[in-house]
Amino acid sequence: MPEKEPSQAREDKGTNSTGAVTTGKSLRADARRNRERILDVATKVFATEGLEVPIDEIANRAGIGIGTVYRHFPTKEELIEAVVFSFKQRLIEKAREMLEQDPGQAFFHFLSLIVREGTGNKALIAALARSGADIRRPLSGISLDFQNALGELLNCAQQAGSVRNDIQVTDITAILFGVMRTLEYNDDSGLAERILLVVRDGLRGHC
Amino acid sequence: MPEKEPSQAREDKGTNSTGAVTTGKSLRADARRNRERILDVATKVFATEGLEVPIDEIANRAGIGIGTVYRHFPTKEELIEAVVFSFKQRLIEKAREMLEQDPGQAFFHFLSLIVREGTGNKALIAALARSGADIRRPLSGISLDFQNALGELLNCAQQAGSVRNDIQVTDITAILFGVMRTLEYNDDSGLAERILLVVRDGLRGHC
DNA sequence: AAAAAAACGGAACCATTACTCCGTTTATTA
DNA sequence: TAATAAACGGAGTAATGGTTCCGTTTTTTT
């Protein structure tokens, strides 16, 4: 009698080039549902309350056991990464779209967009912090993609003379990081506007 | 027979208007020595390693028991306040001195000074963060003094036309906070220079 | 120098949080 | 629908870090 073997060689979860987990067909129905739900809740909670919210809290709000959360995302870090990933992905997409516009406009519009979206979204701020905090650490995956997208906008703007030349992408990331951090505790959009004004004029340079 | 009474009504520790603990004569010799030592060590450790360093660590490095630290500073918060206080005090003094200079110069020199001193000093960054993070919360004590000192420099600079007029002190505090935070993880002074350049030009305004 | 007061030291306590383990439940398969 | 595999849930574990308590030591007073 032939040995029992896994009835159908289920395809494994894999990771695509960008680092996102490709949700293959291999998950059981309830599992896929739960995974989705966790991600949903985590995204909202992280955005409104910050990354320090304990996993238990997220599990509770999702109406799901802690163990389940950990099966899907073996560490808190990985859950955060997953959430952060989609935020960055969306921004990258926006950046690409903007490349159509006038170079100077594009760059500054992108900055505005980030600031606007970031105001009041602690998860997004953290996402940017993760690629902007320590600019010496080489990036990879989605963070690198993001930096490249931003870099392209910057380059174009510089070539068009809309942004000073003595500035690099990493400087922008760093500045962005600072602005975000400031806005983390001040969701006043008036402040955001004024800071953006200063940054904008400063980036144009030589008065 | 008369009841025993405290031989000498020792003067109590009090707090002066700025919030600093006035070290009266009431402390025993070893106590005063220890208090000083704790403050010294804490200042250095907080500066180089940040405020997250546990109290135990500070006690150990000072060669003093944990209990002793807590007798002098009933909560970690109070120890931090004490450290932060002296940093701010020094900055305020500098600000006053600078008022002598040309208004525009004074203001920008002060910004440079803070950035220079802040680069690599996590305690100082935290000190500024504490008065700049949430600009809606009304300040008091030393933080208010600091804001006022900064405000005075700003006012003069604005009246002299060296700084744009659509900006308030709290905006400066916020910007400063952001810059500091950025530099917290990047002690590269080149980056500091470039960011300062952008901020400076941005604050001058209307190109 | 003895008594009283002040200060010391650090083990123990408590709260928080990330993460594990395993008995139970649910989905899938045959 | 019974057997099997997959996934679930949450009590329990471990590490961390702030704070308290109290027996011991040091300083000050008489």
UniProtKB/TrEMBL annotation, chains A, B:
GO MF, any single term: transcription cis-regulatory region binding
Limits of the HTH tetR-type domain: 32-91
Polar residues: bias regions: 15-25
Keyword Ligase among record annotations: no
Organism: Paenibacillus rhizosphaerae
Keyword Cell wall biogenesis/degradation: no
Lineage, highest ranks first: Bacteria, Bacillati, Bacillota, Bacilli, Bacillales
The entry's DNA-binding region: 54-73
Protein name as annotated: AcrR family transcriptional regulator
Lineage top rank: taxon: Bacteria
Pfam families in the record: TetR_C_43, TetR_N
Biased composition (Basic and acidic residues): 1-14
Chain positions covered by the region annotation Disordered: 1-27
